[in-house]
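As the work plan foresaw, our protein records have gained a structure token line. A representative record is set out beneath this paragraph:
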Amino acid sequence: MTPDKTSRERAEQSLANSFERYLQDKGKGRGGDGGNYRRNAARELERFAEWAAGDRGADDWTGIVPDDVDREPTFEDLDERVFREYARHLGGDRGLKQNTVQTYYRYISAWCGWCVNEGYLEAHFAQRASAMAPLPEDDGRKPGDQQAWTSEQRHALTRHVDERARDAVEAYTTLPEDTGPIDKQRARYAALKAARDRALVFVLAYTAVRVGELLRDPNDPRRRGVRWEDLSLDDGSMDVYRKKQQWDAASLPDPVISPLRSYRQLMDPPTERWPVFPTFDQRTLAGLIQEELAERGERPEAITEYRDEYARDLLLALDEDIRPPSITTDGARSILQRLSEAAEIDIDHPKHDYLAPHGGRRGMGEVLVRAFGYTVAARYLDNSEEMVRERYSHIEAGELGDVATEALSEIDG
């Protein structure tokens, strides 16, 4: 088949026929079926296809296929005018913020570029100046990504979780000798949960590790959450799978070591392959234990009797080395919501009414930039110095403002 004939056949295909191949190429993990980018791109491609077919948009919008033609939109129907109209639709009809409009259009533009390389389109219409003209100006901010924990908030949260963990551990370790087995288990479980929460908060507050590098991401099979084998408490380091798609060592500063060491001693994981931050979700653990014990040959009634001997399935999992999954990034947000409320922390932010995980990273970035400058901060944050300067430009602006004020005082005085 000649290249011209192949291109012609692809141009006559419906838009949706290309989506799976594109998403496969852009996905992560074995088979290309993981990754947040794939999930978000799939959503926007589906919306674009619906809009192109006339199923989404203004009431008088009939799609990109001529009115006298009865078929699905194909690549032959695409040109820069189509993408210009879609940019206008994103900017006006959906009531989106300007930076969100830019983000959504980039998903469609990236697919358009891929289609050029694969022979579906003859030109990258989405990148033409006329196509992008209706897009609003990007203000350079990411939606909801501006929260930074202040020193007061960081101290309030870490002090709260530290007190809770100390009280729970003391209550467990000072139980009377005649305490029943179930009551002992309940006390140990409460101590474990409080110690886990403390360790998680301290890691988020002081390491500046991205929450997606620390915990499990259901959309990316490679991000299974850090395990104890990834930590070296003596060296003060932790191996994490970085945003740049490779393993790297992150620093564990002194404030983090003691909470992690105390937590590990209390948990006493059966193997080093256990997650540092396992889920405590009862439904997840119950299903996991029933499935694992059944595979080991236990009968249902025996499994029920065995589980009845434990106050919580997590404790049974520890005894039987039934490894649970790590908590997810969404799980961490839920934990921080609960802890922020319990600690009664004053939070003034347009999107988050709690201390969000990324705010810990940004807060640590603020501390490092102010104390050591952009170069050191960039190394610790695993970012380029250029990006750190851009994201923390308000610090330099404030310092320059102080210099200007001092200069005015000297000259005018």
User: Anything to note?
Assistant: Confidence is low (pLDDT under 50) at residues 29-33. The chain has four domains: 5-133, 151-276+323-356, 280-322, 370-412. Strands lie at 231-232, 237-241, 247-251. The CA atoms of residues 145 and 174 lie 44 Å apart.
